[in-house]
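Pipeline run #58 for the internal structure catalog. This entry was flagged by the ingest filter as a single-chain record with no existing model, so it goes straight to prediction. Upstream metadata was stripped on purpose; only the residue string is passed forward. Reviewer on rotation: M.T. Logging verbosity set to normal.
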Amino acid sequence: MRIALFATCVGDTLFPRAGIATVALLERLGHEVSFPEAQTCCGQMHLNSGYEPPALRLARKFVDVFATEEVDAIVAPSGSCVAMVRDQYAGLAQRAGDAGLRATLAELVPRVFELSEFLVTELGIVDVGAYYPHRVTYHPTCHSLRLLRVGDAPLRLLAEVRGLELVPLPEAESCCGFGGTFAIKNADVSAAMLTDKMRAILDTGAEVCTAVDSSCLMHIGGGLRRERAGVKAVHLAEILASTEIA
């Protein structure tokens, strides 16, 4: 299968290992992966902050870049960015009165996937041949849980990783407090939510907390490092791409 990687701006600038791991994993599974270099931000931050015109421009940029790619799927290691494309782009095009953009999106959006749902739902794979000998807990991020509805796909993948001990996270569906610009505009509330999430993670005794969104892992990982908790925040793609002892 021909796949285009949507690395996302957060991944490209702050968490490149998630994108690199996604490519390594998909290629190991026998797929051809390309990286359209003109790609940029999905526009989620702009739209969530009330800046619709810039968000619309970035939606058009996404379409310009990926609609010309001769691929079967567009895969991103980011639930929130895929949710932006699926859940918000059509509305942006409709409010702009851009029928051409709406038509292109109708053809393009069904080919855009978050990594775990692509592996489980589209490819029908749960055992990707990974080896990761660590005690791991999984945080289901808000966008992947509530908008994309990836369900138990990440857990099914983790359950098949050799050497990995998967431990349930108490109150797993509670938000970590990041929420993009929410963490900036409502810092005190965000910090309190993060404290609850970190307490739940530490209660598991896990060495690693994983998720499908780098942004949430940045928030959680930053808190854990500040507390010197000894727990790493690692993207799901990195675990699935691992085949040797870390």
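catalog note: The chain has two domains: 2-122, 135-241.
catalog note: The mean pLDDT is 94.
status: ready for reviewer M.T.
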